[in-house]
Design a protein that fits this description.
10 helices, single chain, mainly alpha
Length: 264
């Protein structure tokens, strides 16, 4: 049983605090972020040169690598997060749904603590540790371990769905492990987007990569229908099967062994 206070006021306070925080961070970034010599403005700004630059950015994006490597790279961008794209859409309903419907029966406040606090801490720590690891050994060395990290941590929800352990401590531990694994594994994804964007039009190419990243999350649109059709238990098993795409695509892409290593 959960009680709520003034919900509109609570959301108002949250967004005011976040707005002030992001404003202060924007000021800080304007001062602290580096300004590399390659970050220059092109002198020609007429409409024709802008259109040509736009077309060249797309053309070179799909021709910067041999055909099959390009196919593998785009497949990696779309399918590396395929299990997580489905999982993230169902985690909160699973935590909220009552026990008799296959969920864990948490209150909204408990979900905020579990997924919005403990989960975020795990995600952040996983990302930080992933960045440190990649700086030590490079992306190529850590690509497969990070892919396996994203995959194996999905098992925590298979456990929760079958045993419906509604102990808040157990749920927090499971969500922390899953989000930590996702944060650690997502490091490889972001580094590969940077790696693929290297060269001419790097800013435009990275923008296109982030478009594929957004599209990859849309592939999880079937998650709700699928869960209603097969239930939580089989759905989480299905996400484990989908982890084959994560590990498989990580094995197909080619990466320079030196990329990602921190220079002494």
């Amino acid at each position: 049983m959960g009680t709520s206070g003034n919900i509109p006021l609570a959301w108002l306070v949250v967004f005011i605090v976040l707005s002030v925080f992001f404003f202060l961070v924007a000021i800080y970034h304007s001062w602290i972020l580096p300004r590399p010599a390659s970050d220059t403005t092109h002198k020609s700004t007429d409409a024709g040169s802008i259109v040509r630059g736009f077309i060249d950015a797309f053309r070179t994006f799909f021709t910067k690598m041999p055909f099959w490597q390009t196919v593998a790279a785009i497949g990696f961008m779309l399918l590396y997060r395929f299990p997580e794209a489905q999982l993230t859409k169902i985690i909160q309903p699973f935590l909220l749904d009552p026990i008799d419907k296959g969920g864990l029966g948490l209150t909204t406040g408990e979900v905020g603590l579990v997924y919005g606090t403990v989960g975020i801490i795990g995600l952040t720590l996983g990302g930080i540790i992933g960045g440190v690891a990649a700086a030590k050994g490079g992306l190529k060395k850590w690509l497969q371990p990070m892919a396996w990290s994203m995959s194996l941590t999905c098992l925590t929800f298979v456990y929760l769905s079958y045993f419906q352990d509604h102990s808040l401590i157990t749920i927090n531990i499971c969500v922390f492990i899953e989000q930590f694994g996702y944060g650690f594994g997502f490091t490889a994804y972001m580094l590969y987007l940077i790696y693929y964007s290297e060269g001419e039009f790097k800013t435009s190419h990275y923008a296109i990569c982030t478009g594929f990243m957004a599209l990859s999350m849309m592939l999880g649109m079937i998650a709700g229908w699928l869960q209603e059709t097969i239930g939580y238990r089989h759905f989480f098993v299905w996400t484990m099967i989908c982890c084959i795409t994560t590990i498989g695509m990580a094995a197909l892409v080619k990466v320079d062994p030196k990329f990602g290593k921190k220079e002494e």
